[in-house]
Amino acid sequence: MRLVGSAITIAVLILGFAAIAQQTGPGGTRTPAETPPPPTPGSPPAAGSQPQVDESALRYFASQGDTRRVNAEIARLRALYPNWTPPSDLSQLSAGAAAAPDPIVERLWNLYREDRIAEVRAAIAERQASDPNWKPPEELVTALETVEARRRLINASDTGQWRTVLSVATESPNLLTCMNVDVLWRVAEAFARTDQPTRTRDVYTYILTNCSNPGERLATLQKALTLLPEPQVADLLQFERKTGETPDDFGSIRDELARRRVERASLDSKTIASAEDLAVVERLIRNTNEAGPVLILGWYNFHHGNPARALELFKTAIDRNGGTKAAEGYAMSLRALNRLAEAEAFAYEWRERAPENMKIYLDVATALLSQDPPPRLEPQVVARIVPVVMAQRFSDGAQALGWYAYNTEQIRTARDWFRTALTWKADDEPSAYGLALSTQRLNERAAFNAVVAQWRNRSQRIADLADGVVPATARQPLAPRTLASTPVETAPTLVQPRSTPRPMAVERVEVEQPLPRTEQAVRRRQSEARSALGRSCAMTQNPNRLSGDSALTRGWCLMEINRPLEAVAAFDQAMATGSSRVREEAAYGKSLAYLRKNLTSQAAIAAAEAPQTRARQVELGASILTQRALAAYRDKRYVETLLALSERARLVPEQNDLLLIRGWSYYNLGQYADAEKVFRAVQRTGYSEEASAGLNAIREAVSPVN
Amino acid sequence: MRARLPQSARFLPWLVSALLLWTGSMAASQTLSVQPLRVIGSLPATDWEAYRFRFVEDNGRVVDTANGQISHSEGQGYGLLLALAAADRRSFEQIWNFTFTELLIRDDGLAAWKWDPNGKPRVTDRNNATDGDILIAYALAKAGSAWQEPRYTKAAQNLARAIGKSTFARSGRSLVLLPGAQGFGSGERPDGPVVNLSYWVFEAFPVLAALAPEYEWDRVWRDGVLLLQQATSGRIRLPADWISLENGLQPKPADGFPPEFGYNSLRIPLYLLRAGMTDLEWLRALKQRWSAESEGVAVVNVVTGQVRERLNDRGYGILPAALACALEGTPVPAPLRAFEPGHYYPSTLHLLAKSLLGEKYPQCV
């Protein structure tokens, strides 16, 4: 990077920082004597009190004794630079003007003043072609080169060609003056974009030390805010001019720095903002109608133990159109104040607006259900929670519904909810415990034994239940284990087969229970089956005698009473004898039947037996791949898990529970960086205990605690 | 298919760097080399004035009138070359000024290819187009020596070095010219490297080689000729504009481009004639196809041979006439000798052909 290296050296020399020049070491072939050649050679070297004005045309006209044009040019420059005064040595120049003005040169200067640079160049070339001895005036050549360099520099910076910006600046030190603050800003940015922030700071320091336009000085700090780390911006504030004709007011920069400090502290309960900084944000809230500073102070109060004040602030933020963030804060504050019923009602209204709002709704609803003792909830409240939990496949919500049902003596419903929770989150010990309790209460020995067999090594309380240490018949004074108190495991190790939750009666109100996605169609079929055959399909019969349509109906009927393997036989018969529509339906049903038995490969084969609609292909494909991933994960075949998940992710978005499986798979393969990315992604969708557990595990794995 | 190459002499390598080529379809061997053009003074001032008036703005911008009034590095390069051909130093300087300040801004020293007066920034695609870079560098180099202007020569040298550094790429045993510094290489496209044979401005190669001898211009030129012969050895005998070299010596139309001998490739015979490479057998086949009795100048599907579009503008019509003149001494029909500006591209081809005929084949015009 020879180019940039020399650019630094020279730019630094140009900027006149002896101290910095020492750091850059040897290599600067130009001497500091070449520092900014002020366009006004007679002006005092301490520039800054006056804008540096391009007087080259003026000087030319004066040297030609052209008073009319001198006066016109003076008028033009005064209009452009109100503080500018004409140089005092013009009369000397005109006195020396002996020769008559060269009309061509005059025309060139006029073109130059009109910014018709290409035409100036063309006219010079034309003149030289006819008169090889003719030379344009030195000042004009310099002026042209400067304008061209500025154009190239600006064009390069507009298209992100930062090395060109630096090399042009190096070759055209004329440009780097207070007259071209825009150019200096672009050079500063070029240094920043080529990872030389110290040089960026040097350029800003140069501007603040030498240039006098207060608007440009303030804008320099605003640029610095976007390109430099905040401590360096704070350092630059020392150049604020408090006296003089046009003193600076960098107050807005100080406010912004304070605002940023409070913003950082607002997200981290361990960081305390200073009283001064908090006062700045309070003032910003008073002086504007923006929601931004209100939100910052809201989150600051929320994370620093003052949810009541946070609630007020978030209310204000909502009134100021603070949107989903404000609503999230409001709901979280209500929850922190334990005003759960209000929180649920409020969050419900906002749940579809953004993922964070959905997250807080699920969180609040879960907390509402999980209160101890179990609250008496309005039926419509539970009725609206259920479909959201189902649609979001939110395992903690399913678990909470399980406990709510259990504690209101709806044991079958509770059992189904615990099963559902385990389907979505295989390592959920509290749900497994709930399932064990429910099956014990229902006296379902086989189911109870299955849970115990899977969990007794990992859960003391499930083992105790099996060993009869704790009687399960009495109503459990359960403090349901909600998300926050779930034991942190290093890795989920078991996945339970999926189950079908049943409708839950809440306060005698039948809640219509949406089913997991893959089963929705079955449920629709079930009502048809019911009307056609009633429960008669429970009678074993040979499906071979049935017609295609009847076999299909019988298949769905058997699915309804959860005899999937017999359903497979019926669907096979339907496929053998039915129309193409029936064959498609039957292949679909057969896939679902196999899925229910966790026979993933067979399901995949069945799905291919008849053409399916795109929607069904996606649905079946995603289900098959989910099961494949979970089965592989269960068997600790992590590479295959990841393959299946990736294939699935091409069909449908990956939800959080599968993302976690993905994260743990990476973890178990020792790909900690990938695992960390995944867990962080999950965490970004909202707080997740499981993701935190993953991140902790990675931290431990990467740097074992002493 | 291999080329056997005689050792070139140490001096004047381009004049004697003769090349013997065998292709599968050709029994005859050919000797090829670049015959340099003087360029300057080859174009009548009236033709150039008409062109300049229509296509060149006062700020030196060459405007593509059929393409949303945009400008591009190719147009600037053609503008420079034609201004030089007309010995118009004023316009040359003007066009160069725009090219230098508006397009030559890339970090790698190549020109940004696309400039749109309505864009913000006006460079709306900062990628380079290697043919534009070559044309600009070539025109600068020729102007630098014709007018003894070291500014031009220096700029030509910088650009030649940038071209050699960023656009020459290995493809199997060949060294090819990438159409752009980014996006065409073997690692950058599944079917890469992808090349465009009309980006080989053959006449420029020896000139730029003298300015940047550290790069293998001779070899890129040679491999371009070989590639052209391979790409024209099929049944239809026309190269696609965009060619994938994924399979090394078996070029095929590149993905994502129509498999067509189109507006790009029309220039190839013109470039061959301008470089004096008239011995290439393919030119005879093309002359046949382009003759009035046959299909004429057209955009042709190189797989099926189907004609998609016949091109009737005089700027295209002069191409077969120039071929007939160069190969058989046939005079150019009178209507084609007169230049009337139409759209930017055919007008440009027309003047490039006229400048060639004016310098090398005055007897045909």
Automatic annotation (TrEMBL), chain B:
Domain of life, source organism: Bacteria
Keyword Repeat in annotation: no
Listed EC numbers: 3.2.1.4
Pfam family, one: Glyco_hydro_8
Protein name: cellulase
Family that this chain belongs to: Belongs to the glycosyl hydrolase 8 (cellulase D) family.
UniProt keyword annotations, A-Z: Carbohydrate metabolism, Cellulose degradation, Glycosidase, Hydrolase, Polysaccharide degradation
Organism per entry: Microvirga arsenatis
InterPro entries: 6-hairpin_glycosidase_sf, 6hp_glycosidase-like_sf, Glyco_hydro_8
Catalyzed chemical reaction(s): Endohydrolysis of (1->4)-beta-D-glucosidic linkages in cellulose, lichenin and cereal beta-D-glucans
